[in-house]
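User: Predict the complex.
Assistant: Input components as received:
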Amino acid sequence: MTNARLAALLALAVAAPALAEDQHVDATATTLFTGRQDPRDGDLRTVVPVWELLSLHATRVNAPALDELQLHVSGWAAEDLGDLRGHRRTSGDVDLAYAEGQLLGRHLTLRAGRMLVVAGAQRPVQMDGVYAAGFGPHGIGLMAWGGEQVLPRFAEGVGDVLGGARAFWRASFDTEVGASITSTLDRGVLAREDAGLDAHVRVSDRVALVGYGLYSLWAARLAEASLAADVDAGHAVQVFVDARRTAPDLFLPANSILAVFSDETHDEAGGTVSWAATRALTARAGFHFLKTMEGNGQRADARVSANLLPARRFVVGGVFEELALPWNGYDNLRLFCARRFGDAWAATLDLDGYRFHERVNGFNRSVNATGTVQWRFAPRWRAVLAGVAGQTPFLDRRLELLGRVVYAFGAESAAEVWP
Amino acid sequence: MSPRRLLLASLLVATGGCAKLDGLLAKPHDEIKFSHATHLKNEVDCELCHDTISKSAELAAKRELPMEDTCIGCHSDWKEQNQCDKCHTNASLAKPWPKVERLTHMNHELHLKKEKLDCTRCHVQRSENPGILAAITPMAACTSCHNHEESYAQARCDKCHETLDRFPLKPLASFSHSGDWLHEHGQSARAEPQSCAVCHDQQTCAQCHAQTVATPIELQLPERVDRDFVHRGDWVSRHAIEQAADPAMCARCHQTRFCDSCHTENGITTRAPDAHDPHPAGWGSPYAKDFHGHAARENIESCAACHDQGASSSCVRCHKVGGVGGDPHPPGWESRHPHGDIAKSSMCLVCHSGP
């Protein structure tokens, strides 16, 4: 990360209280450190990175000719105090940095900078570019975006340019249908080109349907299709039934040498039932049948959570998961509890165990325990200390320590949430 | 100290310096004793005390409340006789009105012109406390004049509301975050992205979906034992199983280079200095049960996690035109990709470099 970027974040950290005088500002500063073992091909390294994360979201910023202007910046810098995690001791990046304006009576939204885009055929993507969305009469609208895809870490210097558009009709806040197209280039070569249809339709007071279909134009095949029904079954029971087909090979970019090796399909079907038995007790169970090219399998899970004291002051819960495939799978049991002591202190404990159906690295068990202590030592300040201990197929003895200190510049409600 | 370390240290100091420790213990404070009922009964005009309200074009952090000079205008005798307790509960701790967060857009100047200074039109009297005017008007007061059906239907609440995430709203019906929301929310986000934006800013999504995040959210929030996280638990030991269960799962967020980098560090890929072969016996033999051709057809993404190096990929050595590996394309490939497409793609030309 360049000195200029760090300096910009530093300036924002200083400016945040000044902005808060007239505008609305949500900002947090987080100092995070961990100490843990990092196994690398038989070597055990001790990595102790320290991060500083800053996030600032300013709204109602004065701007001529605009109904509203928002600024959003978040980023981080890190220093490796122990063994290197990667190839550099200092690192950093900017997660979000955009300005968003609304005009024409808030019928048009324009955004420029580093942002996330997700809509229709566009899977969630982080890009440096521009985005525009407009509402017309009768709920008809159009959104369009274009820019350069943000490089993930460990990536080479590839410039991915992407663009897309989605036309939609919004009948109500929970009924919308859309058609979209998106395209990504990698050094001038087509990497992805998809067309999509999506819909979220409230059929009745109790039933909503949501679905989308994605067609790969370069491969001339269906890339993804999903259909789900969200049913309010009454008596605080909610049922979600879904079926999905994906072509996993089409998740590789078109210019990958391996994109031409297979025509895969992967199907899933099943559902989840949730039950809010009382205000204090919730339960959930789900099952999905899996059909892959390598064979059939299943995924099941069950979860229960109980508030033993009012205002979620003592929460206990358990989760059981099973994943079964022809060649391996696992059973997982997790037990957790969270307890608040007064207004300032809280503690959690999380016990997590896996049993693998076939050995992983020669072992078929993994057991981990995570404990945390949290302390709100002043208004808008919060500190968390966490320790992890366990044994995994790759670590005889796993020990990790994590600390976090957060300051919220904005309203108290912008601060982090207790469990 | 290097410039970079100095900048990082400065960042830490600035962060701490900008913040004020607002008291470690709860302290006594002053409250103003005031009765709207008494003043209304004595026909005191609202603007006599709230003298700036008729010029207020936007709700501001500074509340439109009268200062001491305004009150003394009528109650000078209390001030002269040092009867501070007539208005203050703890006069020695008196300080200016605290700032509050304004969550709606509101132009008092325009509204007062239309309503001819009738404040009670919107600031309705509370039925449980007659004479006490509600400082914050109920939404029904706004909608008694404003037809916001179109904005409401389109979930464009930001015309009036600064943000909805301050309200104790619970997502209901279609937006209920119950169930397996972790796996279900993507469908709703694609179909109605602007509905999500009503309550969530991009930071919420970026915590998981941004490529540049400092650490996974599971590492940042270990105390959130109640939340579902994708990488919760011993992800390293089980990620290969999860990838086989849903080959697209990793690829939704990670490019193959992300996988390749860690596999190289752990000596699994051919690019590692002392690579050890993770493949089973018979991987290279077309007659063996574990022949790699079957795995490639069934889960090419797992191959890509180590072997996706473009023209340098090890697959090219055997599978280029004229090589010993034979045609790698799946059945039906030629019907969707005519021979003329080869010249359009530099990646195709890696293997189809002959005439």
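The two ends of chain B are 60 Å apart (CA to CA).
Let me know if you want any component modeled separately.
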